[in-house]
Specification:
The structure holds two protein chains of two kinds. Helix content of chain A is 71%, strand content 0%. Chain A is mainly alpha-helical. In chain A, helix 7 runs antiparallel to helix 10 and helix 7 runs parallel beside helix 11. Helix content of chain B is 75%, strand content 0%. Chain B is built from twelve helices and no strands. The longest helix of chain B is centred in the middle third of the chain and has 32 residues. Chain B is globular. The chains are: A mainly alpha, B mainly alpha.
């Protein structure tokens, strides 16, 4: 079996062993989604009226879709590398006969597999209990959204690698990583659709790669973009993926040169 | 009075140690502080922005909805500021450090709870209190009476006491089981439901948040009292709940301490 498949499976087993962490993670996700679901449900209490151009079913689908995309996209174990670097443990990884990025991606995918399976079950239960009106997209829209989500996963992975590299230059970057992570979540639409924000702020955020993580794929699924907007969005998203990949490679090449394996 | 002064001195000393720790890792602390401010500012912008497109959230106007969110922050900040030490209790127990606390001539629970004082929350409190004052000033004339304002402050204190009871309960579980390190985070995660008025939730959830995990009593009741929507019966319930929960949690804490048999070598 491919060595990266082994990494994936071993990590998957580890994930399933950490039940307490898993429960906490799910409670955190569930409380956020519940609060947002009921807030939007209250704002759209008249199903015949929309909000910001979203119909009732589109907004409820956006909120429940958030639960899935937060699990699939907005998660990365790349941030653990900051600790590995700070504590000199990165040496163990560098000495192994494998590509560090591919190894990290295998870990990420195992993490995402557990989270997505849990989130899908939760979304299904919530949709059933609250009889949520779900928006069913045309298969072509769903396919395009799937392509966009795949690019989102890669984009967040490379952004995570860029951020984790801060450990090469400072052992005190964890607080900033948390702040940056929160900022990315807000800017990606992982708390609420960016259309809610004041126009200037929303336009400024759209110049960054972050809206392509959650807001763009969800809106592609919800068929709120024209064909031209989707094509343009996918091209820009691909551009950001390649850009962040190149940036991550470049930063890591410089970072490893300055790596001192303190405490390793 | 002398005992109070002594405890104030101990708290001050522990706070100074915490401040020193924060200052020594000031770059990292600045990052944590920025994160807390980002979260506060973005959620506040979100609430204000919603009102560009609607007149009310479940009947609440912008100043009222803002007050629910800000009051949630005030109660959460007070709990973080005063009881942050509980978060590290599991380490204190498993590493045997609790034995040293037990022999000190000071109440163990006080010692544990005040072990850490999060000064970053003091900084976050500045915009939170300023925005709260702004939101209160935006309420229609005649809404805020001295009586309502007193009730608001009283119920915030009451909410903080319930938060204290929950922290003590978690501390008791940690001492008793030497596990449960995640229980306090469970409480933190559930608190998130208090960001918005409890009325937006389904009836069943409202019941749970009022009687079982009383987040609503801690975060929604003070604002409701301020805008004159809380009846005397609910105020009595809130006060009774804090009294009972503190009594029960302290009793469980003492039971847990009696059960504790040290884990150090």
């Amino acid at each position: 079996m491919n060595k990266y498949a082994h990494v994936f499976l071993t990590s998957l087993k580890q994930q399933l062993e950490r039940r307490a962490s898993w429960i906490m993670e799910r409670v955190r996700s569930l409380t956020l989604i519940l609060s947002l679901y009921f807030l939007w449900n209250s704002l759209l209490s008249d199903p015949t009226k929309g909000f910001l151009g979203y119909s009732h079913s589109q907004m409820m689908t956006y909120v429940l879709g958030l639960a899935l995309l937060r699990a699939l996209v907005i998660t990365s174990r790349a941030f653990e590398l900051t600790w590995e670097i700070a504590q000199g443990r990165l040496s163990h990884l560098l000495m192994r006969p494998m590509d560090l990025f591919a190894y990290q991606l295998s870990l990420d995918l195992s993490d995402k597999a557990v989270r997505v399976a849990s989130a899908a079950l939760e979304v299904a239960v919530l949709a059933y209990i609250f009889d949520a009106p779900l928006f069913v997209a045309h298969p072509a829209s769903a396919l395009l959204a799937g392509v966009s989500v795949t690019l989102s996963v890669l984009l967040y992975f490379f952004i995570g690698l860029c951020m984790a590299s801060s450990g090469f230059w400072s052992s005190e970057s964890v607080g900033f990583l948390w702040a940056a992570g929160l900022l990315i979540e807000f800017a990606s639409g992982a708390f609420f659709p960016l259309d809610v924000l004041p126009d200037t702020l929303a336009h400024a955020l759209r110049l960054l790669p972050f809206p392509y993580l959650v807001y763009f794929p969800l809106n592609v699924y919800l068929e709120r973009f024209s064909d031209a907007e989707i094509a343009q969005g996918l091209i820009l998203q691909s551009f950001w993926v390649v850009g962040c990949w190149l940036a991550a490679r470049w930063i890591w090449r410089i970072g490893i040169k300055s790596y001192q394996a303190e405490g390793g | 009075m002398r005992t109070l002064r002594r405890y104030a001195r101990i708290w001050w000393r522990l706070a100074a140690m915490s401040f020193s720790e924060t200052w020594n890792t000031r770059i990292n602390s600045l990052g944590w502080l920025l994160g807390k401010l980002v979260r506060l500012i973005f959620f506040f912008i979100f609430i204000v922005a919603i009102f560009k497109h609607t007149d009310s959230i479940h009947g609440y106007t912008l100043p009222e909805a803002s007050l629910f969110f800000l009051t949630f922050n005030v109660v959460d900040l007070l709990a973080q500021l005063l009881f942050r030490g509980i978060y590290g209790l599991r380490r204190i127990v498993t590493e045997g450090e609790l034995d040293f606390y037990l022999v000190q001539p000071v109440n163990v629970l006080f010692r544990v709870a005040c072990q850490t004082v999060d000064f970053l929350d003091c900084v976050v409190a500045v915009p939170v209190l300023a925005l709260t004052a702004w939101a209160i000033a935006q309420l229609p004339a005649g809404t805020v009476t001295p009586g309502n304002l007193t009730l608001y402050i009283l119920l915030i204190a009451n909410g903080t006491l319930i938060a204290f009871a929950m922290h003590v309960l978690v501390a008791a579980l940690a001492v008793y089981s030497q596990q449960m390190e995640n229980a306090i985070w469970l409480y933190r995660d559930l608190m998130v439901l208090g960001r918005f008025p409890v009325d937006i939730y389904a009836k069943g959830m409202q019941m749970v948040l009022t009687f079982l995990v009383p987040i609503a009593v801690m975060t929604s009741f003070p604002t409701k009292a301020l805008i004159g929507l809380l009846s005397a019966r609910w105020i009595a319930y809130a006060l009774l709940l804090s009294t009972v929960s503190i009594g029960v949690s302290l009793w469980l804490w003492l039971k847990a301490l009696a059960h504790y048999s040290s884990v150090s070598s």
